[in-house]
Amino acid sequence: MSDFTDLTLGAIRDGVAAGDFTAVEVAGAFNAAVAGAQDALNAFIVTTPEAALAAAQKVDADRAAGKPLGKLAGVPLGIKDLFATKGVQTTAASKILEGFIPPYESTVTQKLWDAGAGSLGKLNLDQFAMGSSNESSAFGATISPWRRKGDTAALTPGGSSGGSSAAVAARIAPAATGTDTGGSIRQPAAFTGISGIKPTYGRCSRWGIVAYASSLDQAGAMAHTVKDCAILLEAMAGFDPKDATSLDLPVPEWAAALSGDLRGKKVGIPREYRLDGLNADVQRAWDDGITWLKDAGAEVVEISLPHTQYALAAYYIIAPAEASSNLARYDGVRYGLRDLPDGAGLQDMYAATRAAGFGDEVKRRILIGTYVLSAGFYDAYYTKAQKVRTLISQDFAKAFEQVDVILAPTAPTPAFALGEKSNPLDLYLGDVFSVPASLAGLPAMNVPAGLSGDGLPLGLQIIGKPFDEQGVLNAGLAIEARAQFTAKPEKWW
Amino acid sequence: MSVDTATVARIASLARIKVSAADLDAMVPELNGILAFVEQLGEVDTAGVEPMTAVIPNTLRLRADVVNADPLTGGGIRDAVLANAPAPEHGFFGVPKVIE
Description:
By secondary structure, chain A is α/β, with parallel strands linked by helices. Chain A has helices at 9-18, 23-41, 49-64, 107-114, 162-169, 186-192, 226-236, 280-295, 311-326, 346-357, 360-373, 378-399, 424-429, 435-439, 469-483; strands spanning 44-47, 76-80, 118-123, 175-180, 195-198, 218-223, 266-270, 299-303, 405-409, 444-451, 457-464. Chain A is 38% helix and 13% strand.
């Protein structure tokens, strides 16, 4: 086997189990790929080649001893640096957590290690997952491995899980964890031509994931194929008593039940997502998706989600409000950065620490959140937004009386260049297609659909009913089989 | 609704973030841009609509009423709790003097 880095997660696991190659060989290949790409792509904040190797050695030893192997045995993974990892720096890409070494392991990552996976390192992201371009990382943005045809401009890998998307697309990790608050798995997956799924809110434990907006935050899987996403998500999901919003439900065997046969299924096309002046490449991919799902046997019908246009405004009240509350914990007392000016008292220390430690976008969202929660404005902004959120959720519930899944674009454009969008509001508008499903807590995924005229990946989004990850994955598989997306970034790093 | 420099200064103080006068001036139009954008929610008729409290219906659970039911979140781990503190002192979190 000359190039392990081109293998899918499933092929690595099966090959290790069959003895076609060893887990150590695989870990070595990916460790080398990570090291070779780090300077150019900046996908990782910390690399942990020794951890990847140690996990692989244990898998090889277990196999030699005839012990049963886990669901992810021999698979090295990239971990978004929002998951607390015991003994390994966890920063949320913020200066305020630089040097923070968690004394515990997040529930999701512990499940991955228990399943036999190893860690390649901690992946870059937008600071505290606030952003959709990776540019708010305190450690510099991740550079997408993709470039426009005939152009060397540095593009965004999307965000906030941009280190994850770049690493998988560049074949320096076979799969990675992500988290999605308003599109942070789906949009970067779309920008880099990979698959990514955000499950129903509550499927994956939030325990040990640095909190941004707790009513929206949900971990998920990013990988090359729909099947790989299913395998990885199975290992990540499951009830956790340490998370009050964790769903006490069995984890279905999504990978084993995958079927791209959509006969008898109905797919909804939301008319409100047909924006005036929608990017022509994105529109074409959406039309292709409709053709493919029909070809798979589905009936395609138009549906209405009447409150769609208000989703972004509701999101940019609710998420900052929760963020301002969650991020109150960074005070320079218990962990992380402390800035104590000469002669400063406790209050001055708080203010100086938070000024020095938080990036501009994080400060902006904390201030917006503080404002909308402040006395006199709470009802006008926060309560109003939560009412609109109820209406958005009801829109979906009504639509799902009629259809099984919804097909829409993931993002309104292909990847843009770093530095191209300097106004925060311009960046927020890029979340237009991903935020509604987040507000409703629904499972949703991105599947690659084709390339733009500039040669950049385009993604399609499938949104499903609560708890119906299977329906989402199946529709994803039907698209994947027909899109035949084999393009990969030309190696320039 | 829009904010002025004094209001942004007050919010920053509530949020315990020190902001220089120059940064304050830069933030005013940024925040007003965002506030103007979210203003559109006023168009939505929400009469009789309950605000969302749980996106996926779930019930709150009680854990067993025993000490250290889960050792990961239980007690007796002072050193681990203090391990990342910027200024631990005598087994406590150290802070600047708060009593004159």
